[in-house]
Amino acid sequence: MATVALDRLRKVYPDGHVAVAGASFEAADGELLVLVGPSGCGKSTLLRMIAGLEAISDGALRIDGRVVNDVAPKDRDIAMVFQSYALYPHMTVAENLAFGLTLRGCPKAEIEERIRAAAETLELGALLQRRPAALSGGQRQRVALGRALVRQPKVFLLDEPLSNLDAKLRASMRTEIARLHRSLGATMVYVTHDQVEAMTLGQRIVVMKDGEIQQIDTPMALYRRPANVFVATFLGSPAMNLLRGRLVAEGGKPGLALSEGLMLPLPGGDIDPSWLGREVDLGLRPEHLLLCAPGEAADFGAGLDMLEPVGSEAFAYLRFGQHPLVARFAPDDLPAPGSIAGLRVAPGQSHFFDPATGLRLPAAG
Ligand SMILES: Nc1ncnc2c1ncn2[C@@H]1O[C@H](COP(=O)(O)OP(=O)(O)OP(=O)(O)O)[C@@H](O)[C@H]1O
């Protein structure tokens, strides 16, 4: 297995479009690193540069310490899995799995052994003599994975491999890929636009936007301490609430002064004293707006427009003055839509961003 290190990797397309504006990170040996971001952010371009399918405009790419900028894709010891499966329709599953190995002159006995092992790992044994047309979407994607597996590459590159599957199959294939990664201990770089896939699969996540890396960290670190408003609102569903206002402490009571003369009370410890008086974007995750029980003293009230029960919990669409808020409540004893819900903000969970830059405010040290 291998490390993949990017040093200020850049891609400028011939029309002058900067698709990747200098990306630096390293996937550790055996790591499953996920690249995530909205459509057009440059994640596929980045992966294709690692694969050798796209020329690198500037910067250095190292696989296992060796600079491979000018090494042909077939000599990089990587295997790529695409969204579109890219199976040969006229070949059986076994032939599809064997094809790349035969091309490389791998001995027949070895090919058979590798196919047997891959078929066992991916539960393809019963399907080996079928053609792709006779397989379900999930089975086709397993064959595509199998084709990468038999290559025994140093690095697996996966480009939206689950996007063509329905939601249920996506979830089960996600588990399968995680299991495969664990059992192989392989280095994998995985591209997706789906933040749930990124959060559940990635050991670390690289968040991209407009060709630039926004933040690299473990899923929970990104969730708990997003570096900017983009990362804060991209990860998490429903998305983090954002409110612009001025931080104040009137009569010793800290809060966010909003338009319309509204005041959103905040837990005292959340506000760094050096921030008082300044305008901020306050970020609150839906689960950090706490519903007060009837009779319990609430910090503020918000009109409940609509409830969306999803079984284990309910999403509440609220309005504080003009400001929409989404909260995540336990499914029982919910207030009725049209009523006022008594709320408070969970201590230690407020996020503060600079409205000018979108960056998280550094606490005064
Ligand atoms: N050959 C090309 N010439 C010019 N611009 C390109 C070319 N290929 C891609 N781009 C642009 O580069 C940017 C990044 O594209 P890329 O395919 O890497 O994005 P992505 O994040 O993978 O998006 P998606 O999730 O939609 O596939 C986009 O703005 C795209 O329009």
UniProtKB/TrEMBL annotation:
Keywords: ATP-binding, Nucleotide-binding, Transport. Pfam families: ABC_tran, OB_MalK. InterPro entries: AAA+_ATPase, ABC_transporter-like_ATP-bd, ABC_transporter-like_CS, ABC_transpr_MalK-like, ABC_transpr_MalK/UgpC-like, Mo/tungstate-bd_C_term_dom, NA-bd_OB-fold, OB_MalK-like. GO terms for molecular function: ATP binding. It comes from the Bacteria. Residues 4-235 form the ABC transporter domain. The keyword rRNA processing does not apply. This is Sn-glycerol-3-phosphate ABC transporter ATP-binding protein UgpC. The gene is ugpC.
